[in-house]
Amino acid sequence: MFPQVLPTYNRTDVAFVRGEGPYLFAEDGQRYLDFTAGIAVNAFGHANPRLVAALTAQAGKLWHTSNLFRVPGQEALAKRLCEVTFADTAFFTNSGVEACELAWKMARRYQYVSGHPERFRVVCFEGAFHGRTMAAIAAGGNPKYLEGFGPKVEGFDTIPPGDLKAVEAAIGPQTAAILIEPIQGEGGVRVMTPEYLRGLRKLCDQHGLLLIFDEVQCGMGRTGKLFAYEWTGITPDIMPIAKAIGGGFPVGACLATAEAAKGMTPGTHGTTYGGNPLAMAVAIEALTMVMEPDFLPHVGAIANYLQQQLGRLVADHPDVVAEIRGQGLLLGLKLKVPNTEFVTAARRMGLLVVGAGDNVVRLLPPLIITESHVREAMEKLSAAAQTFEAKSK
User: Fold this and answer.
1) Which residues pair with 314 in a beta bridge?
2) Is the dihedral angle over the CA atoms 263, 266, 269, 274 positive or is it negative?
């Protein structure tokens, strides 16, 4: 019998029934330390009382109206996001890929109203991941995700990251924008250097292009700043965000400057559920929490502590762990053993981690973890590594 739930995931046979802070509890009562956070979503842990209160308070008032009417929560959240970022405007979505889709439409529309309708192509980078829509898999360029879905959506030129000369060579008369993740998560936790990102900004300025930073995974405090672009000294023109901005509730946004968004006039884009009152209530509280004075300094401090401890892991298990990658609490372990097997071994020790490209395991803990949680994770990571060393003897 064909599965009633479409079998597009290689699911692990574990089901969680409850969460508390950085812990998840399975059906059988087993407790796991969660260093996946729903893939960088549950930044405030599970069942965070402030987010629960914001959601339940709004749920008793109003769930959904329509974007045919004003949504006060959108106005409040957009105002706050624009105050704390480079942006002048925000459009709210249900997910990160929807925010990315708008970013590409916005870039094309910007060129159209600027008198360059021929400019519609976007320069993208190998190892990127922008979602699973037809356009998103074209932008990512991963053959595994493109296979079997017919011709690749036109308009995306994928090149290796890190070489500014290669980027300049890829820019042509039809180029509208450059799209990049400041840190590639799915692609193997590859950090783009500030110098490289500044070089992309310069190329965009020279050629009349828009610069798009996909901060769906690396944004909302995960690097120790509100958004990763803040480490670079430059700003993008458009920035899709999602994941942690709802703390687990589905919500995304596309932020942009007024200039970049000038082509997005009434009727050019829309959404049914995006920015509904429930999502806005939770996201407003999530942003309030991240912007409290002690929150981001805590992320920076605990990230430094975790990275120090991971250095010891590499030293103690050189035949298993090759190197540490990443920034803040978006970290990766480049392995010398299969990452899928390491994920399984860690889970058996009671620690949840997630794989990535280039044989990397990602560590994406909630941003509220403490040093005691780090020490617990290190014990479990070390125990997982030892299982591979025992096999080799």
Assistant:
1) none
2) positive
3-state DSSP call for residue 151? coil
Report the greatest alpha carbon distance in the chain: 67
User: What gap in Å lies between CA 298 and CA 294, rounded to an integer?
Assistant: 6
Contact 164, 200 (CB under 8 A): yes
* Residues in Cβ contact with 307 at an 8 Å cutoff, skipping those fewer than 6 apart: 324, 331
Tell me the per-residue pLDDT of 210-244, one tens digit each, with 9 for 90 and over. 999 999 999 999 999 999 999 999 999 999 999 99
Query: What's the token pair of residue 263?
Result: 């082509």
Per the document, the length of the chain is: 393
User: Please, are residues 199 and 164 in contact by the beta-carbon 8 Å criterion?
Assistant: yes
In a domain? residue 387: yes
Structural domain boundaries enclosing 354: 16-34+294-392
pLDDT digits (tens, 9 = 90+) for 41-82: 999 999 999 999 999 999 999 999 999 999 999 999 999 999
Among 139, 163, 168, which Cα is nearest to 153's?
139
Residue with tokens 């000038």: 262
Residues 278 and 308 in one domain: no
Q: What is the rounded distance in angstroms from the CA atom of residue 353 to the CA atom of residue 326?
A: 15
Only one residue has tokens 């980078």, namely 125
Q: What whole-number distance in Å separates Cα of residue 106 and Cα of residue 139? A: 15
Domain boundary pick from 290, 309, 328 = 290
Angle, helices 72-84/277-290, rounded to nearest 10 degrees: 30
φ and ψ of 33, to 5 deg: -80, 120
Judge whether 220 and 65 are in contact, CB under 8 Å.
no
Q: Which residues are catalytic?
A: 129, 214, 243
Which tokens sit at 136? 């998103």
Strand 210-213 relative to strand 175-180: parallel, antiparallel, unpaired? parallel
Question: Judging by beta carbons within 10 Å of its beta carbon (0-12, 13-18, 19+), is residue 354 exposed, middle or buried?
Answer: buried
